[in-house]
Amino acid sequence: MKRLVILVLAMVLVSTGMLVAQGSSEDSDVFEVAYIARAQGDSFASWLANSIQQEMDKYPDMTVDIMDGQASDEKVNSFIENSITNQYDLIILQPNNGEAQMPYVRQVVAAGIPIILTNPRIPELIGEVSSVDADPYEQGAVNARYALDLVPRNAKVVVLNGPAGNMHSTAREKAWDQEFFAKRPDVTIVGEQIAHWNKDEAMAFMEDWVQANDRIDAVISMNDNMAAGALEVVKDNPKYADLQVYGVDGTAEAALLIEAGKMTSTSFQNAYELARTSVELAHRILTGEVTGLYDTDIDCPLITPENVGQLIDAHKATGAIK
Amino acid sequence: MKVTIEKSKNFAIKNSIYFILGAIFIISSLLNENFLTVLNLRNVLRQISVITILAFGETLLIIGGMIDLSVGAVFAVAGILSIKVFLITDSLVLALLTGILAGVALNIISGFLVSYFKTPPFIATLALMTMARGFVLLITKGQNIYQIGRYIEFGQGSIGFIPTPVIFMFIMLAITWYTLNHTRLGRSIYAIGGNEEAAMASGIQVPWVKFIVYLINGAFVGLAGVLFMSRVNAGLPNAGIGFELDALTVAIIGGTSFSGGIGTAAGTLAGGFIIGLLNNIMNLVGVNSYVQQIIKGAIIALAVIFDMAAKNRRARVQEN
Question: Does domain A137-267 have CATH number 3.90.1170.20?
Fold first, then answer.
């Protein structure tokens, strides 16, 4: 037992020594950036974090430390405080909850450290800090406008929502309400549930809806994961060959489903573009190329069978599609 | 006559969970005409399979006075490793074995910590949960794996009219039932959960039994991970978050006592059915998401209160 304890302690000491050695060998001319991700367990957040790392690697004068907020406000806020203490040159923050992070972002500003918010920005802090985001209303709206003419008359549709209170889900739902349901009173919602962005939960809901309804003409989903879950249930059922399915995000799976003619459309929330724009802005701020605040929105293009090839190419480039 | 009434009462008390299940079943069939169809009941069975398999593992652990909080994370590791092996080898058998072995291998850590280092199971499995989730995110870089081909046969296939996951669920039910009722290991698990010191005094190798129970649980978790990833047709590294609570809920509703020593495999299956039927009927009749949570919480509380009251009554009857 004693030997085991000594062994563990020795391993801890060696690891600590290696970390210290690594830290001291870093070039002091290199800008150190902290990237605080909302939750690496969230596939989009993880995609964004990986893209940030890839973009950072293109700049020899910048390094990034990526921190995982694990969908916890307490953890995200602690990372912000630690980043101030560690005197990073710049912080890029993907907030978990705008309200909860707001006072901590203001602490960063008070400490004189530049900060960029991304995916999403915090509306109350516009004018105080820079941000790079995609407009969640538009992400829903481009699909809703596309669906206006496609969804048949007197259609029966089901709706899959993200977590309650989530800003992106709420804004996408609002877009569908205003841009589609308000203009198509003939359409009936026969099922609407929260599937928490998850494919398996969406599958269970769809299985039940298929039993409860004689027909379903369209699935309106606030992300691609849930849309793919609904499709998984009916993919071999000829009765649903004409089912229309709408999502948001432009994931690799959605791209393949659109290419196969199973999914109708999605909007591309381009993590690569968010990362490229955020990292480029970070570099320009750090090198003094720009001063002042910048709020940038990336595009959220509609992806349909006509242009899905571009999305597939983008995913192939990163290895997400073979 | 009195004896017959007393016997009937005891029978009802002993099987209270099944009466609750029966009541939910009858009420559901009255609420919606689509409920009592073969296709719908097949859906319910398929939907509860994964979580009930996890709950069988938890049942063994809880009866023995242990717990596993790492279920969701280990389940994700097992599923992802299984898919990776399948994509390399194109062998379903190897993929299945990988998933099960991954679950067992990770549970060696929990079993070792709990049995030989006397770490409280809550802490040991919490540590494993954190490590396993980090590991699965690391090996996938947090990204989902798609294009998994015929790997979906485990979760979406069927033998005759019965979905494959349901067959696996019943096999796991049989294993759990047999282990608990017809093996020395089963008797030792009940003894340890009932009174660990007495079990030790009676010559039971408590650390060894605990270790073995974690390994069995690991096999269940690994299998469930394979079935889940196959069902959703993707490798999802963030899958299973919160599943430990779902599995615990199923076991507890099924009559497994959190204080150890009490529980049955059939009860856990009934617990799985109760949760599955509740979710199903509420979706069929279109109950709002928020209201669903309130109703589900209330029914879980009522089921457990009813079960506890029945057990207390049974205990009083036995004392008299």
Answer: no
Contacts of A190 in chain B (CB under 8 A): 286
Q: Which of residues 21-40 of A touch B (CB under 8 A)?
A: 40
Topology (CATH level 3) of domain A30-134+270-291: Rossmann fold (3.40.50)
Segment-wise mean pLDDT, segments of 10 residues, chain B, 320 residues = 72 81 93 91 94 98 97 96 97 97 97 94 95 92 88 92 95 98 97 95 96 98 97 91 92 89 94 93 88 85 75 67
Out of B39, B43, B286, whose CB is closest to A191? B286
pLDDT of residue A45 exceeding 90, the answer is no
Residue of B nearest to A204 (CA): B47
A322/B241 CB distance under 8 A: no
Confidence of residue A166 (pLDDT cuts 50, 70, 90): confident
Residue A272 near residue A291, CB atoms below 8 Å: no
For chain B, the structural domain boundaries read 43-312
Report whether the peptide linkage leading into residue A163 is cis, meaning its omega lies within 30 degrees of zero: no
pTM: 0.84
Q: Looking at chain A, which residue has its C-alpha nearest residue B283?
A: A208
Following DSSP, what letter does each residue of B139-194 receive, concatenated? Answer: HHTT--B---GGGGHHHH-EETTEEHHHHHHHHHHHHHHHHHHHSHHHHHHHHHHH
ipTM exceeds 0.85, yes or no? no
Asked if domains A30-134+270-291 and A137-267 share a fold, the reply is yes
Tens-place pLDDT, residues A264-292: 999 998 888 999 999 999 999 999 998 88
CB contact under 8 A, A194 and B283: no
Q: Which residues of A touch B40 (CB under 8 A)?
A: 208, 211
The residue ranges of every structural domain in chain A are: 30-134+270-291, 137-267
Task: Give the distance, in angstroms, between the CA of residue B174 and the centroid of all CA atoms in the same chain.
Answer: 13
Q: What is the dihedral of CA B255, B260, B266, B267, to 10 degrees?
A: 10
Give me the CATH code for the B43-312 domain, please: 1.10.3470
What mean pLDDT comes out for the span A33-59? 88
Question: Does the distance separating the beta carbons of A194 and B234 come in below 8 Å?
Answer: no
